[in-house]
Amino acid sequence: MTNLSFNLVDESWITCTRLGGGLEQLGIRDLLMRSHELQSIQPRNPLTEAALLRVLLAVVHRAVDGPRDSSAWKGLYQAGKFDERIPQYLDKWLHRFDLFSKDAPFYQTPKLLVVDGAGNPCPQPVSSLMLELASGNNKTLFDHTTDATPIRVSPAQGANILITAQMFSLGGLNRKTTNLFGYQQSYLHSVMVNGIFILLSGRNLFETLILNLLIYRDVEPIPNTPEDCPVWERTDIGGTTSTTPKGYLDYLTCKCRHLLLLPKCESGKTFVEQMYVAQGEAFPNVVNPGSISKKNKEGKWYHPQLKIDRLVWRDSTALFAFDEREDRRPKAFRQVQTMRSLVSLPQRYICTAYALANEKANPLLWRRERLNVPFSLLSDSNTVAYLEKGMSLADRGAQILNGAARMFMKEYLPEYSQDVSDKVASLGASQTYWDRMEGQYHQFLHDLETPENALKVWECAIKSTARESLNVCLDGRYRGSTRSYRAWSIASDYLNAQLANLHE
Q1: Residue 396: what pLDDT?
Q2: CB atoms inside a 10 Å sphere around CB 24
Q3: Which domains does the chain have, with CATH numbers?
Q4: Average pLDDT, stretch 469-482?
């Protein structure tokens, strides 16, 4: 390590959107103390946004020592901005927020080396931490960078990359030897890879943080021990295996990778080009308090993964539906429902979902979806029932459309054809339908304050979108023959007849 320094408390490194518009880079201190003047944080990568929010929540939890109960949460919310406890805490731990500290670099493992068979250091390119770049075994999905193309990042970029990697690094083969932990065969997934993570967004960044600041005590939001603390307060360097977190703050700031950034300075400019990385800790048995839960066909709970062909809104029944005997919604939803009787809260909320889809340790895509929802959807089982009915109708519409597409193919293809299912899939009618229904869904959410009318409009949208989807897909590929027009007519008649009985 050099004597270079970049302290995340006061250096500018987090991109934020001001309420009045425009972007600004701030350090942790100014960001939190001005959070009531900011709309949101706005990094380039939405996964970085989710990761940074977890770190910021951990700072606030620790600074306010809680909140331990509803009264403490109410006081924080009604204050409208953070008080002096934030800078007091940051000043106390200022030495642990230096990205390039020799003794305790932020969120890293000092003195870490990856070595070859002769014991010589073998640093890796920092690009290998970046899911959006092609590096190591990652597929070239988002650009055409390779390990042979050195990437230099600024300290600000390095901090964002570091935090994102701690929470969203994918598992897979490692096969490297370190000076501190010996040989490591493979990596485990980082804490945020599995599942779909949900946050409530408020009218400003302060509200967003408070709405997701869960009451923190012995067993909430997960079991906590007296030793629980954020990673920057720990005196040990951490382990390399699956384990149980000491509590919620340990979980929020899980050290999933042992990392060490290697800064350099040329012509007065500091940059990072290389680093060392090893497997860190993993918490596979912890249920993320902010994740979507669903029941499978056997009635058992599980956490769905992001699929490349299925937007998160299609799982909104699981996201918002609740059973008073076994409420598995994100805990922020439940907390807002309880706090409604104590403080004046908005009538509508932005629900933001973050997730990463992957296959065999390769990133496929990440997604951030925003849903504008009425408070009644977080608190009223009757409103949720209308949503469930609406999503059931949408699924039924998709089934009917698929049946019409299948009927077209059976009529159009020769009798001896065996590839009906493949032809139906290649037609793309179902995908077109769901893509077009997304905008209608957001309108449905907007209208749910008057649920009966919203359901009627939604049903009309399902029918018209199903017809449009069939016609668009057939018109593009199957025009111009008597056989295709006859099959098209039969499929359309089937579609209309089935849609007329959509409720059945």
Answers
A1: 96
A2: 16
A3: 14-279 (no CATH), 383-500 (1.10.132.100)
A4: 86
